[in-house]
Amino acid sequence: MIYTHRNVLRGTTLTDLDTRQRFRNVVSINTETGEVVVTPEPVRIAADGATFLTETIRFAAIWPVMDRGFPCLFHCHGRLN
Fold this sequence. Notes:
Blueprint: E1 2-3, E2 13-16, E3 21-23, E4 26-30, E5 35-38, E6 55-67, E7 70-79
Parallel strand pairs: 2-7
Antiparallel strand pairs: 1-4, 2-3, 4-5, 5-6, 6-7
């Protein structure tokens, strides 16, 4: 499933369990493919002037922790890139 700001609880965090790194500026999380799209810090605008530059990080597994039917936390491990 693909998660964005539209289908998670406000303040939802993503943590790499191997390194204990917490990711900021997450755009989307795809639990089926193990892909997390983030904007690097500082956030930069793409050449078209309408979108942000993004980076895709891949993991062996990502799973949501649910609260009231919505994810409030994501755990991931096995970073592939």
